[in-house]
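thread: overnight batch results

M.L. [08:02]
morning all. the overnight job finished for the chain we discussed friday. pasting input first so we're all looking at the same thing
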Amino acid sequence: MKVLLLGSGGREHALAWKMAQSSILEDLFIAPGNAGTRKHGQNVNLSPNDFEGIKTFVKEKNIDIIVVGPEDPLVNGIADFFENQEDVDVAVIGPKKEAALLEGSKDFAKEFMKRHNIPTAKYQTFTKDTIEDGYSFLESLKAPYVLKADGLAAGKGVLIIDNLSEAKRELKSMLADAKFGDASSRVVIEEFLDGIELSCFVITDGDSYKILPEAKDYKRIGEGDKGLNTGGMGAISPVPFASPTFLDKIENQIIIPTIKGLKNDGIEYNGFIFFGLINVKNEPYVIEYNCRLGDPETEVVLPRLKSDLLDLFEGVASKTLSERDVVFNDKSAATVMMVSGGYPEKYERGKQIYGLNEITDSIVFHAGTIADGPVVKTNGGRVLAVTSYGKNVEDALNKSYNSIQKISFEGAYYRKDIGFDVL
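M.L. [08:03]
and the structure it wrote out:
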């Protein structure tokens, strides 16, 4: 089977690493990939949003399956594009544009949950024309206040604010001053849910679904979960507080109603669904949906998957997913992100990375890296995800932290407290 994987981050390196283990893989191409993905296939200088360029490449290489890593191509309609091409026959693992609105529009997702009785926070949506109503709604809530840009804002469009006056100022900044551009032309204000977060994932062919291992990620740049939001500073799997009873609640109250709801609404869905959840007094609520795997959660979820990932993708493409098995590794996994100094604000690229060849106890997934001949350099804010197995989460974390001591680049930073809040 010939596969084209779209994306260039840690999630895509983990996907490439896992698919490279498949007995049914013939060729793997990654567009554009990074310094790590080249070990598992051939990197291709193509943008994930260049649909015409991708089509030309698919025809040239006789690609069977396109696996879409990031959200942008999905929200921009890559699955619809290829469905409408009469001269090319390729399966796209990822939902069509309408289904991708589950991630592309917070308001769409909230309306969907409301319609199908899926537990989530109380909310209302506002535009610049209804900004005064937004102020009134904020006044009706207790602090802290949650403001979400309706559209995609590169993970930065969610604000949690303790002060009412500041929340009103930020609402004006988002709606009237376009703080997040078109993404905040509408803003969802929602009730704050006090609990502990986790992520769950399914893969679906639209009819059946398979549940992947759950994970917990850490978004803030600073230890103690303080400071600015990031794309994610680390993750663990399994999640210690996610008991079998709690996981059953997630499946019955959230996963099944979501799959059924999409079908009842006439929305075709094919690929991954990420459920961003919060445990409030042992009841699960949905914070958000994503229409792809999370990052860095992918870097702990896929190492725990014993099943052939490409076989699962083939099951999605042929609508025979129900016939495939999903088996987990009983080991724990933990990943710690190494990031560029200054991230998530201004940071420099092009710093040489040392020590990668010394790592024997961990898997190093590349995120923001680039190859300069034999030298690997930094090329982004989140640079490396250092993932380890262990007999439990604590053991896995210790191995990742030991491995990090052997890796260095100028300005390197990582959190030293990943997972400690739940151990």
